[in-house]
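Example for tutorial group B:
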């Protein structure tokens, strides 16, 4: 509850101009077409790793645009952006730790495959 003599809400609303939202949408669509073009076009083939990094970079740019303009983080106090960056850093940290763990049991999986090369990997689908 606000104290007497102070405004109840000191946050001033903002209105994003339609041209900014339309330009953001157009840029998102352009980036989507570039992603699809790199994936489908033989002339733009940068190899499996190159195409993956291009797609991830474009996806990061698109996610940043969505967060900044459609979720209005650009117009908020800087602490909101700091919280967002810290949360994303933790997601990257936990995902990275999980992916590093997969290297630990890969030799066991390969040994299983080498021991029984005729084994079916989806026993529930066998008839």
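The residue assignment follows.
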């Amino acid at each position: 509850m606000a104290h007497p003599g102070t405004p109840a809400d000191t946050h001033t609303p903002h209105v994003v101009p339609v041209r900014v939202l339309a330009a953001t949408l157009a840029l998102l669509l352009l980036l989507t077409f570039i992603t699809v073009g790199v994936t489908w076009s033989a002339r733009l083939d940068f190899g499996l790793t190159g195409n993956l990094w291009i797609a991830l970079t474009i996806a990061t740019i698109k996610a940043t645009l969505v967060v900044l303009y459609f979720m209005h983080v650009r117009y908020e106090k800087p602490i909101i952006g700091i919280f967002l960056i810290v949360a994303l850093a933790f997601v990257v940290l936990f995902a990275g730790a999980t992916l590093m763990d997969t290297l630990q049991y890969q030799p066991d999986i390969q040994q299983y495959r080498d021991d029984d090369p005729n084994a079916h990997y989806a026993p529930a689908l066998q008839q």
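The helical segments are 18-40, 47-70, 78-115. Compare this with the pattern of hydrophobic and polar residues in the output above.
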